[in-house]
């Protein structure tokens, strides 16, 4: 169930078996909430199929997207060390997720040093991605943000052809731009021969130039 996740690739088979033993598969309909602010934490989640948006609501009522999580990625890892969730997690489409139970997971970390070390690596990769996203939103052009996101998906999906987890309008919000800007910039990337769009699928035509843009 979890062995196909790139972020778990360095976790030994026996540890992966232990991880799956403390996990619970959950099906959620589009629009359903996995948790909201103030809900007691049960653990963190891995997306097996579909997509989930994690967001906060500002004091003025504006929704601020934190992450859009597609198949093969995890979210809410920080909940392991919190009593309650501090944001919302909502299914953007019919989805299947895996809940890794909080208390059982913490016991696993405490009992097994090798597993704890492997998990530190997973969290380090997540932290690097968070830093990268902050840099993109504050410094990079719309083209560089889109290129960076496509390359991130390629790494997660392990291929030169990637699938967007949700509609482009939601991706635009995540990347801090209007959907008009997203469509216009994406078209420029296509015209330059860097990528090809086919519905929700993107084929990377020139990876080196895409990386240079980032």
- For the CA atoms, what is the radius of gyration? 18 Å
User: Which strands sit side by side, in order, in the main sheet?
Assistant: 1-8-3-6
Mean pLDDT, nearest integer?
84
Q: Major β-sheet, in short?
A: 4 strands, antiparallel
Please, what is the oligomeric state?
single chain
Tell me the strand percentage band. Answer: 25-35%
Roughly how many Å apart are the termini?
A: 33 Å
* Uncertain regions spanning at least 5 consecutive residues: none
CATH architecture of the largest domain: Sandwich
Total domains: 2
CATH topology group of the largest domain = Jelly Rolls
What is the H/E order? HEEEEEEEEHHHEHHEEH
Output the number of helix runs: 7
| Overall CATH class of the largest domain | Mainly Beta
Q: Give the overall form.
A: globular
Descriptive terms for the model:
2 domains; Jelly Rolls; 11 strands; globular; alpha+beta; 26% strand; Arc Repressor Mutant, subunit A; 4-stranded antiparallel beta sheet; 214 residues
Question: Can you put this structure into words, describing what you see?
Answer:
With 214 residues, the chain is of the alpha+beta class. It folds into 2 domains: 6-128, Jelly Rolls; 140-213, Arc Repressor Mutant, subunit A (Orthogonal Bundle), CATH 1.10.10. It is built from 7 helices and 11 strands. The strands form 3 sheets. A 4-stranded antiparallel β-sheet has the order 1-8-3-6. Strands 2-7-4-5 form a 4-stranded antiparallel β-sheet, with helices on one face. Strand 10 and strand 11 form a beta hairpin. The chain is globular. The relative contact order is 0.14.
């Amino acid at each position: 169930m979890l062995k196909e996740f790139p972020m778990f690739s360095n976790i030994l088979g026996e540890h992966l078996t232990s991880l799956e033993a403390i996990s619970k598969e959950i099906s959620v309909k589009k629009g359903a909430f996995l948790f909201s602010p103030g809900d007691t934490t049960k653990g963190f989640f891995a997306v097996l199929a579909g997509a989930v948006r994690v967001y906060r609501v500002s004091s003025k009522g504006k929704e601020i997207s934190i992450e859009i999580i597609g198949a093969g990625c995890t979210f809410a890892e920080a909940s392991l060390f919190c009593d309650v969730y501090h944001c919302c997690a909502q299914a953007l489409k019919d989805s299947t997720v895996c809940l890794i139970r909080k208390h059982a997971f913490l016991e696993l970390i405490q009992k097994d040093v090798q597993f704890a070390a492997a998990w530190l690596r997973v969290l380090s990769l997540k932290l690097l991605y968070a830093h990268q996203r902050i840099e993109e939103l504050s410094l990079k052009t719309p083209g560089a943000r889109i290129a960076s996101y496509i390359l991130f998906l390629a790494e997660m999906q392990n291929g030169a052809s990637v699938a967007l987890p949700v509609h482009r309008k939601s991706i635009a919000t995540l990347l801090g731009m209007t959907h008009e800007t997203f469509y216009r910039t994406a078209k420029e990337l296509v015209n330059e021969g860097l990528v090809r769009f086919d519905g929700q699928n993107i084929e990377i035509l020139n990876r080196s130039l895409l990386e240079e843009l980032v």
